[in-house]
Amino acid sequence: MPKTIRVLLTGYEAAPFYKRGGLGDVLGSLPKALIQIGIDARVVIPCYEEIRKNLSAKRIGKFKIHFGEKEEEIGIYRNAGTPRVYFLSNSSNLSYLNTRGRNKKIEQFAFFDLAVVHFVTWLSKQRQWNPSVIHCNDWHTGLIPLILRNKTKLPIPTLLTIHNLSYQGFGSLKVLDLLHIKDEDAKEIKRGMKVTEINILGEGILHASSVSTVSKTYAREITDEKNEGPIYAYVKKREETLGRSRAIVGILNGIDYDVWSPQNDSAIFHTYNVANWQSGKEKNKKKMLNSLDLEPRLTFCFIGRMASQKGLDILVRVTKHIVNNNANLIILGSGAPNIEKSIRKLVARYSSHMRVEFAYNEDFAHKLYASSDFIIIPSRFEPCGLIQMIAMSYGTIPIASRTGGLKDSIKNNRNGFLFENGSVLSLKKAIKRAVKRFHDEARYGKMVVNAMNTDFSWKRSARLYKKLYQNMLLQHNVTH
Ligand code: ADP
Fold first, then answer.
1. Among 256, 262, 301, residue whose Cα is nearest residue 279
2. Could you state, in order of their start, the residue ranges of all structural domains in the chain?
3. Ligand 1 neighbour 259 (Cβ under 6 A)
């Protein structure tokens, strides 16, 4: 085993360079925590034009890859700070994040995955660095284990972390042709079933040396043999075809307190801490409600992507209940047009108590965490969820579904409220309990302090990742 473990983490986003959801937070903060415990962690992501515009990174080299019939040049950029982040650029395939057309999406990331594998080869040829482990994240990087095995002789174990199973990267098998990978080389995908499509995440599960996800409960939910959880079939196949462990390790994400702390957050109106949270939150709330032209009242919020996973349909059905309790509801999010439409209707009806911003707005998110009393998280499933952790750090009490990482990170009645997943009635009851608690100053204050004092730093989870990398390397040495 190398003295220092060198890990290359990769995914489609990494804060602060590019962030659209929790994975961006993770790839921005986990590497820092790994470095603190002696791991040489680096990151590689695509160099979208939006990143390049604001980047003060140096171009350190280039290489070429064959994708389909074309030869494409990849430029390599590197930031100046720590952790070291590499950006791979290519004007035809990586200049922006493709969000339309599933085949276009999977082609883009087949291209990126091929580029990452060549980049690793390029790095070691240049004697610059060679990773002992490649840590892939979500379907976007799910082809790396297969390409690595197929196109190189580099003996590097791979970890695939699943952050969200709703996105698996389905599409035409033609991506294999673009990668010049023969059907028989990818035969695991086809064995035993008529397959005309590739499932990139499934492919990653089959080929990665280890697989993990972002909470213990989600790990159980998705591999549940009894209910045939969504990836049970792949996990079983992984065991049958590769003899590899069926187990999916669950390691809870953490948050970066350099970014998410009301004590030194320059985006909020007034900074505060656990000692003066009452006046601090009050001042933030006053400014926020003033700016939105809302009366000073108890205030609930929602922050998140407007995807069906996030359970906004449930929130829609309890809005009247919130308003009847004479409370405000402020919503920040964007996404599915049908969800936005139903929220628009509500705002028109409850304009005296409700505001919504349909946008991805980092600055507004910080302000909203600081100025709300409660945050509602009605997710139908939630692999880990960072929103509840961030909210708690700002003393904003989560009211969340009892699922996945929400269940693993919230202690019901102590630092938040849990309600039964998908149940409008149960959410209504939880809101009732929250309102009652809010008016009981002493008990509410205790809850806020508990929430703010809950430690969601990466320390513990970073150590669990280190152990996992060590096990992977030991295992790898045995089999190679
Ligand atoms: P997911 O990764 O499923 O989107 P998480 O709870 O893991 O959900 O992480 C969401 C992250 O994205 C948090 O940092 C949250 O503050 C941020 N976020 C979500 N929606 C928005 C938005 N509309 N504007 C700003 N930040 C947002």
1. 262
2. 6-254+459-479, 277-453
3. no
Name the CATH superfamily, with its identifier, for domain 6-254+459-479. Answer: Glycogen Phosphorylase B; (3.40.50.2000)
Q: Supply the mean pLDDT for the chain.
A: 92
Q: Which residue has the tokens 């959410």?
A: 427
* Atom nearest to 163 CA in ligand 1: 2
DSSP string, 93-126: TSSS---S-HHHHHHHHHHHHHHHHHHHHHHHHT
Residue 23 in this model has a pLDDT that exceeds 90: yes
As a whole number, mean pLDDT of residues 441-464 equals: 97
Mean pLDDT (whole number) for 243-254: 81
Q: What is the CATH number of domain 277-453?
A: 3.40.50.2000
Does 333 sit in the ligand 1 pocket, CB within 6 Å? yes
**Separation CA 376–CA 391 (nearest Å):** 10
pLDDT digits (tens, 9 = 90+) for 325-382: 999 999 999 999 999 999 999 999 999 999 999 999 999 999 999 999 999 999 999 9
Residue 32 has pLDDT above 90, yes or no: yes
Please give the distance, rounded to the nearest whole angstrom, from the Cα atom of residue 305 to the centre of ligand 1: 6
C-alpha distance across the termini of the chain, in Å: 13
Q: Give the chain's radius of gyration (CA, Å).
A: 23
Mean pLDDT of 462-470: 97
Q: Report yes or no: 372 and 300 within 8 Å, Cβ to Cβ.
A: yes
What is the CA(368)–ligand 1 centre distance, in A? 12
205 CA to centre of ligand 1 in angstroms: 25
Can you tell me which residue has the tokens 């925590």? 33
Closest listed residue to residue 420, CA positions, set 433, 401, 405, 394? 401
